[in-house]
Write a structure and sequence with these properties.
The chain is α/β, with parallel strands linked by helices. It has helices spanning about 15-25, 40-45, 55-70, 90-95, 110-115, and strands at about 1-5, 30, 50, 75-80, 100-105. It has a single domain, classed as Tetrapyrrole methylase, N-terminal domain (Cobalt-precorrin-4 Transmethylase, domain 1).
Length: about 140
């Protein structure tokens, strides 16, 4: 098993308690260097820390597999919440086919961090009853 952990919306104090515990006990840490606050990476005592920027899906999956098969606690640290723009399904499919399962730990998405910083809400009775999350191609 490996862990997919949401790093939150940039503020290192907004990672979840569970996410921080996993980060601090990780032996292998794979993170998106351009998107994850470096302070979170520093919190991890992992002996292996890999910046996944520029790595292909197959390379990332191979590193996760190597760590899991070596009996290491592997954490894949994603920006925000991994379920929003995280591209985790492809990664999980490759590893599931090899019998390697993931546990997902959500993070605070930047859309919710922004609402908190602006002291506002996205839904208001009688005004806006829904929120639509979309992405551009790419």
């Amino acid at each position: 098993m490996y862990y997919i952990v949401g790093a939150g919306c940039g503020d290192p104090e907004l990672i979840t308690v569970k996410g921080e515990k996993l980060l601090k006990s990780a032996e292998v840490l794979i993170y998106a260097g351009s998107l994850v606050n470096p302070e979170l990476v520093k919190k991890s005592p992992a002996e292996v820390k890999l910046n996944s920027w520029g790595m292909k899906l197959e390379e990332i999956c191979a590193e996760i597999e190597k760590g899991v098969l070596a009996g290491k606690k592997v954490v894949r640290l994603h920006s925000g919440d991994p379920s929003i723009y995280g591209s985790i399904v492809e990664q999980m499919s490759v590893l599931e086919a090899k019998g390697i399962h993931a546990q997902i730990v959500p993070g605070v998405s930047s859309m919710f961090g922004a609402a908190a910083a602006l002291q506002t809400e996205y839904t208001l009775r009688g005004v806006s009853e829904s929120v639509i999350v979309t992405r551009s191609a790419g």
